[in-house]
Amino acid sequence: QAQPVESGGGLVQPGGSLRLSCTAPGFTSNLCAMAWYRQAAGKQREWVSGISPFDTTTYAESVKGRFTISKDNAKDTVYLQMNSLKPEDTAMYSCKTMFGGIGSNCQISWGQGTQVTVSS
C-alpha cells in the first residue's frame, strides 16, 4: 500500500467547481476506507467526507449538497467533486487511507495535500 497522492487543486472563482483526485495503489485490494480532510490557514484540520470500501459515503454539514465523493476501484482512486465553491472552502485538502472494516488490511496513510483557493 503506497502513500496517497492528491491532485486537482487550483484557483477557482466563487461558484465554480473543482474535482480532486486521490490515488493510492493498494487502496482497493486492501479494502481501505478513504477520507478527505482540509486545513485552512490558521485553523485546525477538519474532516470533509469519507467513503467506505462498500461505497457508503458521508459528508460534513458544511459541504453536504455541494461536494460528492466517489471512487474508481480499477484505478485505486477516490474523487472529490466540489461544486458551488465558496471562499470559505479555501484550504489544503488531503486524503487519508484507513482501516475499512472486517477483512481490511489497510494502514493509515496521509497524502501531501493539494491546495484549493476560492477567490475572485
Could you characterize what this model shows?
The chain is elongated. 32% of the residues are buried. It has strands spanning 5-7, 10-12, 18-23, 32-39, 46-51, 57-59, 67-72, 77-82, 91-99, 109-110, 114-118. A hairpin with a 6-residue loop joins β4 (32-39) and β5 (46-51). The strands form 2 sheets. Strands 2, 4, 5, 6, 9, 10 and 11 form a 7-stranded mixed beta sheet that branches. A 4-stranded antiparallel beta sheet has the order 1-3-8-7, with no helix packed on it. The mean pLDDT is 95. It has no helices and 11 strands. 0% of the residues lie in helices and 48% in strands. It is an all-beta fold and 120 residues long. The termini are far apart.
Care to give the gist of this entry?
This protein has 120 residues and is mainly beta. Helix content is 0%, strand content 48%.
How is the main sheet built? 7 strands, mixed
Through-space gap between termini: 39 Å
User: From N to C, what is the helix and strand string?
Assistant: EEEEEEEEEEE
What structural class do helix, strand and pairing data support?
Answer: mainly beta
Oligomeric organization of the protein chains: single chain
Mean pLDDT: 95
Uncertain runs: none
Based on CA atoms alone, the radius of gyration comes out at 14 Å
Shape: elongated
Tally of strands? 11
Strand content: over 45%
Count up the helices.
0
Helix content: under 10%
